[in-house]
């Protein structure tokens, strides 16, 4: 059995790590370079860096900041935000990214997934999906969750997989920042429907939530932000408890 991955996420705005609730009311959570070093030391399996305002502000990801973070860590590093073409991905790869995450640009131009997978390999391309329940359906949202689309989430995820996505990073906006637990029902549905790894995001508030998401959904990885940034959960402690619950993790 493959080991489950624990992934801290740095949501970066104006060069600082921030965290909100349901994608709004952002507050400062520290220096991304310092946090990245800390997570690498603590035993995080990977690190995700999302430039959360790049798409909205129609600009590219902060390449110099990415380089500074990459120098501090020795774990796989995923970058997202403002990637709209091969050249953007290439610049981030050269800056130290191991993988890139695309979201809004992929929904607007699905062929971008094919192009990136062909240019860099499937394992390089993570498709991030921000979903929110509207009526009785899970609907894809763009621009940092500001803009609902007409795409149903599961349908879009299956298309992304068919085009060459290597992993899906699925964030439940309804759960994001609430610390009330992951959206295990929908995560199970998605994980059962695809053949690529799924990263659960949105709602982690306790160690038990990580136990629950792995036991109930069998996703490959769980991502969180504020519980790690503010020291509420330490990664070594989390991994100890996961192992006690017979969940395979890397030591």
TrEMBL record:
GO cellular-component term (any): cytoplasm
SUPFAM superfamilies, sorted: Ribulose-phoshate binding barrel
Entry-linked InterPro entries: Aldolase_TIM, His_biosynth, HisF, IGPS_HisA/HisF, RibuloseP-bd_barrel
Active-site positions on this chain: 11, 130
Enzyme class: lyase
Keywords, sorted A to Z: Amino-acid biosynthesis, Cytoplasm, Histidine biosynthesis, Lyase
Known EC number: 4.3.2.10
Taxonomic superkingdom: Bacteria
Cellular location(s): Cytoplasm
GO MF annotations in UniProt: imidazoleglycerol-phosphate synthase activity; lyase activity
Pathway the protein acts in: Amino-acid biosynthesis; L-histidine biosynthesis; L-histidine from 5-phospho-alpha-D-ribose 1-diphosphate: step 5/9
GO biological process, one term: L-histidine biosynthetic process
Catalyses which reaction(s): 5-[(5-phospho-1-deoxy-D-ribulos-1-ylimino)methylamino]-1-(5-phospho-beta-D-ribosyl)imidazole-4-carboxamide + L-glutamine = D-erythro-1-(imidazol-4-yl)glycerol 3-phosphate + 5-amino-1-(5-phospho-beta-D-ribosyl)imidazole-4-carboxamide + L-glutamate + H(+)
Description of how the protein assembles with itself and partners: Heterodimer of HisH and HisF.
Family: Belongs to the HisA/HisF family.
Role this protein plays: IGPS catalyzes the conversion of PRFAR and glutamine to IGP, AICAR and glutamate. The HisF subunit catalyzes the cyclization activity that produces IGP and AICAR from PRFAR using the ammonia provided by the HisH subunit.
Name of protein: Imidazole glycerol phosphate synthase subunit HisF
Organism, as annotated: Mucilaginibacter psychrotolerans
Protein encoded by which gene: hisF
